[in-house]
Amino acid sequence: MSGEKQNKESFMLRLATFIVDKRNLFFLLVIIGTIFTLFSRNWVEVENDLSTYLPSTSVTRQGLDVMEEQFTTFGMADFMVSNLSLEDAWRLKTRLSEVEGVQKVEFDNTPEHYADASALYSITFCYDEKDDRCLDALAAAEESLSGWDLYVSTELGNAKGEIIDAEVSVIMVYVAVIVLVVLVLTSQTYAEVPVLVLTFVIAMILNLGSNFLLGKISFVSNSVTSILQLALSLDYAVIFCNRFKEEHQNLPIRGAVIAALSKAITEIGASSLTTIGGLVAMMFMQFKLGPDMAICLIKAILCALLSVFVVMPGLLMLFGPLMDKTEHRSFIPKIPFVGKFAYGTRFLLPPLFLVLVLLGMHFSKGCPYVYGYGSIETPKLNQVQIAAQMIEDTFTTKNVVALMVPTGDYEKERMILDELEERPEVDHTMGLSNVEAMDGYMLADRLTPRQFSELADLDYELALGIFTAYAVDHEEYGQVVGGISNYSVPLMDMLLFVCDKLDAGYVTLEKDQMDSLHDAREQIQNAKLQLQGTEYDRMLIFLNLPEGGEETYAFLDTIQGIARRHYPEGNIYIAGNSTTEYDFKLAFSTDNTVVSVVSILIVLVVLLFTFKSAGMPVLLIIVIQGSIWINFSIPAFTGTPLFFLSYLVVSSIQMGANIDYAIVIASRYMELKNTMDHKKAIIETMNFAFPTIITSGSILTVAGLLIGQMTSEAAIVGIGQSLGRGTILSILLVMFVLPQILLLGGTVVEKTSFSVPNAIRRHSASGRVRVDGLVRGEISGTISGSIHAIVDGDVNLNLISGSVLEEEDDEGKTN
Fold it and tell me: Which of 334, 336, 342, 340 is nearest to 691 (CA)?
């Protein structure tokens, strides 16, 4: 044994001893951490809008940033009331309009608002959509229609987050029950089950309690991290527990825990590298949800490692005596037929698998990825989705795109809107230049004193005086000198100016005129808040197109082209659900390649140094990458739309986590093939690997399938379904194809193996010799001093301090 290895093992033994002996301290820290988590888990902010994670350079992200900075977006909601007459519908509109906090209720007797004995009310509230008063007004509006068949669709509040949290809580219960069953079936003692469960619960608590360090996480990460943490990291606790049981056959509980921990730290650490490596690939995505999920999952795995290394040793010390009393026979059968099948088909299955992989690679390119929720049918619908679906089935849905151009030129805006309204793809538009203010005049129409006096029913001389005051107030003295009668001012600006002078007492009008002007002022102010900023004006374009699809994406380019012709120099921005989907598509075109390449490269490097062979990593990666391609070719055959995020997340997890199944089989086979014939070696390998693979694989499969079937969020559904299906495929390929590949590719592995050179110098001396350094060899004589070494042979010495532990030698014998 090399001196370097001796020193490493000595350090690991000292570290393991410290952890075991200080277990009560770690228990205390866990209790404190648990109490802290009760508070800190509420400090993290959950982001429900996927568009937040678009690249900062994307069209939509820039547009949304401008909208948030420049404009007020009032809270809105669609109310659909079913089973009522048109007369009742008008009566309910009046009732809704009287609710405190409601600014406007849109309703008429056209098919857009009344159809099939159902009424659709588009409600605009008086407050910004982020103002909590919107929620109060929304609740009051719902209360005003109590007793009616009401369906509400709105983006206000955190309904999505609350629904997902409730669904995930139910999923977690199912997963917990299944995990308990799997652990009992794969255990050798009943008492080891609570050790494993408590270890994971503590890992979950540590992870939840530390989320606040990230500040804000996505709703996807918040909902699936705990479940995936269990599925991805339970192996670590199982490996440590199995190692403890092996050591405990020859050592007492304390010595077995120390010995097992000293060996498991490096073993489990190496095993976690592939999983972490696969997740790191997501950090290279342009779509920032990838880094968000990667950081959350990597942190979850590190918390699991921390729990296994510092908490589980104490639990083993605590439950060790009970484990001795609750041993039972293994419930997992041996599977020699798998090894025999592998040996018998070693020349047949690898070529067939290669053909299948090539087909999977080809057809996976045709996977029907979608970038919005419109065409995705989830296994279940929540209350919000049911309401939205009812409204969509009864009335025409709206697809709105916001176009922002430099402010100040209403004529250019009018020309843009007129040109767009001539297009068949556009239903209608709305902007300052085509929103009617009074008697057919638009908000941005420029009026002369004569026109304004006729519109507002004012004396012409008074109108001249008002226009003169406006010109002076705006320092346009040339207009006063040149003749105020030809001076024109945008209607909305003049109305607001007149209202300000009325409030100041400079202008006096009759009461009905004043009331009319004040009503107009409120509407104009609200319109300007929504449509005019300090630097940009916003125009709303209502499309006759679906939110997603190539035709929609092409027309978005057309809109920008029309705007660019009128504003060749200034910045223009566009934003909406359709632009979000378009940017998702553009980001995905790069991210799918980046994630695949980076995950393969990272895992390849880890496997290269694990097996010290260039051939073995290639063989293992082909199997797992093949399962990924086959997994995502299935939707191409079924025609099932798949949210693009599913591929990015699941391919990383499959490559990083499922590769562990292949590593278990490959490592064991490489150990056994030199001590027995290849047929017996592969049979023993499969018998050994089956419990580990079935434990981890079944939990990951069940977790994925439950997520895919029991949640209503389309993005999470796709991840769950793809992960469950992909894990099943990985297990099947690892169990029934990889063994044949190892049997057939053994020569390639051996010819591409390498070793890391190690310079060693031999020294010989006699008499009194001082030795300082890492050594390996034989010493005959009396030793005085501190020693850190492994001795193969007889030991006869007085122990002044420290410890002497008997260990198994390279042949498995106890010295």
Answer: 334
Q: How far apart are CA 460 and CA 473, in angstroms?
A: 20
Distance CA 731, CA 738 (A): 10
Q: Are 576 and 400 in contact (CB under 8 A)?
A: yes
User: Three-state DSSP class for 375?
Assistant: coil
Taking residue 162's Cβ as centre, other Cβ atoms within 10 Å add up to 12
Percent helix / strand / coil, the chain, rounded to 5: 65, 10, 25
d(CA 557, CA 574): 10
Tens digit of each residue's pLDDT (9 = 90 or more) over 565-619: 999 988 999 999 999 999 999 999 899 899 889 989 998 988 888 888 889 999 9
In this predicted structure, what is the pLDDT of residue 808? 56
How far is residue 526's CA from residue 522's CA, in Å, rounded to a whole number?
6
What percentage of the chain has pLDDT greater than the value 70?
A: 89
The pLDDT mean for the chain works out to 86
**For residues 234 and 199, what is the distance between their CA atoms, to the nearest angstrom?**
9
Dihedral sign, Cα of residue 743, residue 748, residue 751, residue 757: negative
Closest alpha carbon to 537 in 655, 432, 386: 432
At residue 525's C-alpha, the angle toward residues 520 and 526, to 5°, is 100
CA 754, 758, 759, 761 dihedral sign is negative
Sorted by sequence, the CB contacts under 8 Å of residue 537 that are 6+ apart come out as 404, 405, 406, 407, 408, 413, 431, 432, 531
Question: Exposed e or buried b for every residue in 463-493, given b needs 16+ CB within 10 A?
Answer: bbbbbebbbeeeeeeebeeeebeebebbbbb
CA 78 – CA 238 distance, rounded (Å):
52
Question: Tokens at residue 606, please?
Answer: 């880890």
Residue corresponding to tokens 């993290």: 44
Residue 773: band (very low, low, confident or very high) from pLDDT cuts 50, 70, 90? low
Q: Are strands 369-370 and 436-438 parallel, antiparallel or unpaired?
A: unpaired
Distance CA 500, CA 667 (A): 83
Print burial letters for 185-217: b (CB count within 10 Å at least 16), e (below 16): ebbbbebbbbbbbbbbbbbbbbbbbbbbeeeeb
Give residue 764's pLDDT band: very low, low, confident or very high (50, 70, 90).
low
- What's at 504, amino acid-wise? A
682 Cβ neighbours under 8 A, 6+ residues apart: 339, 342, 343, 669, 739, 742, 743
Separation CA 734–CA 741 (nearest Å): 10
d(CA 347, CA 741): 9
In this structure, what are the phi and psi dihedrals at residue 317, rounded to the nearest 5 degrees? -65, -40
**Tell me, what's the pLDDT at 494?**
86
Distance, in Å, from the CA atom of 192 to the CA atom of 326, rounded to the nearest integer, reads 9
| Separation between Cα atoms, residue 555 and residue 538, nearest integer Å | 18
Give the relative orientation of helices 312-325 and 192-210 as an angle to the nearest 10 degrees. Answer: 160
Distance CA 115, CA 107 (A): 12
Instruction: Record the tokens describing residue 672, joined without a space.
Output: 């056994």
| Residue closest to 727 by CA, chosen among 811, 800, 642, 657 | 657
On the 0-12 / 13-18 / 19+ scale of CB atoms within 10 A, 644 is: buried
C-alpha 411/C-alpha 488 separation (Å) is 14
Element (H, E) at 517: helix 511-531
Asked if 529 and 72 count as a contact pair (C-beta separation under 8 A), the reply is yes
Distance CA 51, CA 576 (A): 10
Instruction: Read off the amino acid at residue 593.
Output: T
Contact status, residue 405 vs residue 567, Cβ threshold 8 Å: yes
Is there a contact between 407 and 71 (Cβ–Cβ < 8 Å)?
no
CA 246 – CA 814 distance, rounded (Å): 13
Do 230 and 699 meet the contact criterion of CB atoms below 8 Å apart?
Answer: yes
The 3-state DSSP class for residue 30 equals helix
Q: Which candidate, 464, 443, 463, 439, places its Cα nearest to that of 453? A: 463
At 182-201, the pLDDT tens digits run 889 888 899 999 999 999 99
